[in-house]
Design brief:
There is one protein chain. The protein has 24 helices and 18 strands. With 562 residues, it is of the alpha/beta class. The chain has an eight-stranded mixed β-sheet, sandwiched between helices. A five-stranded parallel β-sheet has the order 2-1-3-4-5, sandwiched between helices. It has a five-stranded parallel β-sheet with strand order 8-7-6-9-10. Helix 13 links the parallel strand 7 and strand 8. Helix 5 packs parallel to helix 6. The radius of gyration is 27 Å and the shape is globular.
């Protein structure tokens, strides 16, 4: 379970108790001592070594300062310095700084200058600037939460005057849920694909019965709820969420809808489609196979309660959204589903291209089914590989892969961004990245190898690869390229290990297949943690497979090689 630091200027003991369901919680000793905790490098805060930190500040406790532009500005500068100091001291710990909610007394004369919004916005700008400077500081949208909940429901005057705790039980529950979502996002615990129904979900009406002209879909009145829902889905897709269609319909009926003038989503926005009369549970299993993801990576949105119940019963790994009875609440239902299942802290270039990549994967799969042999299929793909030392711009994607790849991962060692940077800077270590493409398009950065050298021996510390290129002999090409590169460096021997996890069985015998010799084992064979150690002479590593039409090796890396 994660360790969470909860820093605040008010009493948050009860809130911390709610958060303990999600992890260990550290709270500063004493009232409003969060800044002292940060500036004192021997404080309990640093001893706790939190995996995530939340800075929750109650603006109304500083109303005297916020009545003055000068005093309020100095206060925010102090806070910004504290958050910056903490971010520098623990660069790999995500820090969630809550947005401010300031409400000075209603006892104001008509022309009185109100600085509340000014300071709320200034604090948002300060937090965002810290992130732009490269610090892992993110805005926690508490102000939005208060507006959605309602101030009178979110706060409790009785709790404030009795115990310096401003939040009601309802408010604390909402805060705990919000914090939990962001901490989960920091740990990478998100789904990958939202599978959606069409009729009465993306539009009102049934296309097969009502026809194109009879659909409820427009920019105003009843149809706007569906158009707004599509806009949200479109934004999710642009942030790396894959969309898929699961619809009991005739394909020819559905195809015409994408030309509807009020449709926001287009066919190319969907990574996969299953439009037929088969059970949706059967279709989603086939879709998981096509996309090469698990059923537990899916979320399902459908207006039909019978379809939802069947999905829950037959595919319990799939998360099923409770469809609202009042469809005017459909847009907010989808927004909440994003926060619940897909919230992410960063969006990479790979994420933005995810739909295109998976659409290309479907084309590859179709070609494979129509090709006589695997070797012919792989040659026909016209695969190209670029293997080189990690560049600075690749670091974020490397950290992402290291911390979320499970199937093709020989040791499943996790590294923080700071640790990845340190490894890349060490003379005896190398982080190697692999990009792939073929006639259907780019697959991006798909594999990472971390090598650590000692004398004339190189140890493979990490060898992982994206599941979307498994089965294409990329691992053989990588091993061959490493062999040639290591030989030039004077390395004579390579050692490696396989450590079993619940998900990496597909690579259990990879090193044997690549020609490595088994040196020893440790642990119980059928249990997680079981380890196999290997070695091989560099000149015995496999030759590059002939299925690749181009392999670009270690160009532009001469400085570190020397």
């Amino acid at each position: 379970m994660p360790r969470i630091a909860l820093l605040s200027n008010v009493t948050v003991g009860m809130l911390a108790g709610m958060l303990e369901k999600q992890g260990e919680v550290y709270v500063s000793d004493g009232y409003d001592t969060w800044q002292q905790d940060i500036f004192n490098k021997t404080s309990g805060l640093y001893e706790a070594k939190p995996d995530a930190a939340v800075i929750l500040l109650h603006g109304e406790d500083y109303l005297e300062s916020f009545r003055s532009a000068e005093a309020g500005g100095k206060l925010l500068d102090q806070w910004r310095l504290a958050v910056s100091t903490f971010a520098c001291a623990m660069p790999e710990t995500p820090i969630f700084a809550a947005s401010l909610d300031i409400r000075s007394s209603r006892c104001r004369y008509g022309s009185e200058i109100n600085l509340d919004k000014y300071f709320e916005n200034r604090w948002i700008e300060a937090v965002q600037k810290l992130h732009q400077e490269g610090k892992r500081v993110y805005l926690l949208p508490v102000k939005e939460l208060i507006e959605e909940t309602g101030r009178q429901s979110f706060y409790s005057s009785k709790m404030w005057y009795m115990g310096s705790m401003p939040y009601s039980m309802k408010g604390m529950k909402a805060l705990a849920e919000l914090i939990g979502k962001y901490v989960s996002a920091a740990r990478g615990g998100k789904k990958k694909c939202l599978a959606v129904d069409l009729d009465n979900t993306l539009w009102g009406g049934v296309i097969g019965e009502d026809g194109l002209e009879g659909l409820v879909l427009s920019g105003h009145k009843e149809g706007a709820r569906y158009q707004d829902t599509q806009r949200i889905l479109k934004k999710m897709q642009s942030q790396g969420v894959m969309l898929a269609i699961l619809s009991k319909n005739n394909v020819e009926d559905v195809e015409g809808v994408f030309g509807h003038p009020d449709m926001v989503l287009r066919e190319e926005d969907f990574a996969a489609k299953a439009i037929n009369w088969k059970p949706k549970t059967e279709n989603i299993r086939a879709m998981a196979d096509t996309l090469n993801i698990g059923l537990d990576a899916f979320v399902f949105l459908d207006d039909n309660p019978a379809e939802r119940e069947q999905m829950k019963a037959e595919c319990p790994e799939v998360a099923v959204i409770d469809f609202p009875r009042d469809t005017s609440k459909l847009p907010e239902t989808v927004e909440k589903a994003y926060e619940e299942y897909f919230l992410t802290l960063e969006v990479t270039g790979e994420d933005r291209q995810k739909t295109a990549m998976y659409r290309s994967e479907a084309k590859r799969k179709a070609e494979r089914e129509n090709t006589a042999s695997v070797e012919d299929y792989l040659r026909n793909l016209e695969m190209r590989m670029d293997i080189h030392l990690m560049t600075e711009v690749e670091e974020e994607r490397v950290v992402q892969l290291v911390n979320k790849t499970n199937q093709f991962n020989l040791t499943t060692v996790r590294y923080s961004g700071k640790e990845i940077r340190q490894i890349s800077e060490e003379d005896e270590s190398s982080i190697i990245t692999v990009h792939m493409s073929d006639k259907y398009g780019e697959q991006g950065l798909v594999a990472v190898v971390i090598l650590k050298e000692e004398g004339k021996t190189a140890r493979i510390d990490t060898f992982l690869m994206s599941c979307r290129v498994m089965g294409r002999r990329a691992e053989d090409a990588i091993a061959a390229s490493l062999g040639g590169w290591l030989a030039k460096k004077g390395i004579e021997r390579v050692t490696a290990s396989y450590i079993r996890t619940a998900k990496n069985r597909p690579v259990e015998t990879l090193y044997e297949r690549l020609g490595f010799e088994l040196e020893g084992t440790e642990g119980v064979k059928e249990e997680s943690g079981y380890r196999k150690d290997y070695c091989i002479l560099v000149n015995e590593l496999p030759k590059p497979p002939e299925v690749f039409c181009s392999i670009q090796e270690f160009e532009g890396n001469k400085e570190k090689e020397e």
